[in-house]
Every structure is written in structure tokens, then in C-alpha cells.
């Protein structure tokens, strides 16, 4: 497993609070920032065939707005693993400005068993 993964994303119209209905302004939506944080956390993992991870907790602040077209850098750092439970520090930057930060928890699951429970 990789300890830290960094991804770069561009704020597009689909990522705006006004488009996602999480607010009325044309700025990066908090749910999109969180989705990118989860994406980076997933990329830290090198799982066995048939395994995946699911997000089970997210505690973040969204501290500064970002406009359409902004480049956002997201970093997830795996800080602890206890069995199937993974803890991450996640942070988002626009340039040198931290726009969001927090903690994220994921759980490693068997994909087939997980979906069987969902659709029984």
C-alpha cells in the first residue's frame, strides 16, 4: 500500500455547488471535494482480487471557496490500519491555500459478500 497519494483535479461546472444543489453559488461543492478525498484514499490501496474498500466516516472542514477552472490538489495519507479499518488524513489545496482538511475512515470488504448483503 502507498502511504500517500496526491491527485490533481480541475473544478468544472459539474463540480459546482450550484450544479450539485449543495448551495447556490458557483464555487467548488463540498460533496465534490469530499469525493476527491475519497478517490485519493482509494488510490493508496493495493487490494487482493475480490476486495474493495468502502467509506465509513468522513470528518472534514471546507475552509475556502474555489472558482470554476481552479486546479485543486488533493492528498490522502494512510495513517493507521487496524485489521480491515483504514484511517487517513485528507487535505485539499488550491495553489498554496489549504481549502479543506480532515479525517477519513475506510473498511476493506469482500466485494461479492458486500453486494450480496445489499441486494438480498
TrEMBL record:
InterPro entries assigned to the protein according to its UniProt record, in alphabetical order: FlK (IPR025540), FlK-like_dom (IPR054485), HotDog_dom_sf (IPR029069)
Gene3D superfamilies: Hotdog Thioesterase
Protein name in UniProt: Thioesterase family protein
Pfam families listed in its UniProt record: FlK
Domain Fluoroacetyl-CoA-specific thioesterase-like stretches: 11-112
Top-level taxon: Bacteria
Entries under SUPFAM superfamilies matching the protein: Thioesterase/thiol ester dehydrase-isomerase
Amino acid at each position: 500500500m502507498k502511504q500517500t497519494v496526491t491527485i490533481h483535479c480541475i473544478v468544472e461546472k459539474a463540480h459546482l455547488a450550484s450544479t450539485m444543489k449543495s448551495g447556490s453559488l458557483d464555487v467548488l461543492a463540498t460533496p465534490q471535494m469530499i469525493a476527491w478525498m475519497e478517490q485519493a484514499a482509494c488510490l493508496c490501496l493495493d487490494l487482493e482480487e475480490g476486495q474493495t474498500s468502502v467509506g465509513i466516516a468522513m470528518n472534514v472542514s471546507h475552509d475556502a471557496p474555489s472558482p470554476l477552472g481552479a486546479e485543486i490538489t488533493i492528498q490522502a495519507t494512510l495513517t493507521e490500519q487496524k485489521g480491515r479499518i483504514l484511517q487517513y488524513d485528507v487535505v485539499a489545496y488550491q495553489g498554496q491555500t489549504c481549502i479543506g482538511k480532515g479525517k477519513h475512515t475506510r473498511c476493506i470488504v469482500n466485494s461479492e459478500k458486500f453486494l450480496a448483503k445489499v441486494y438480498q
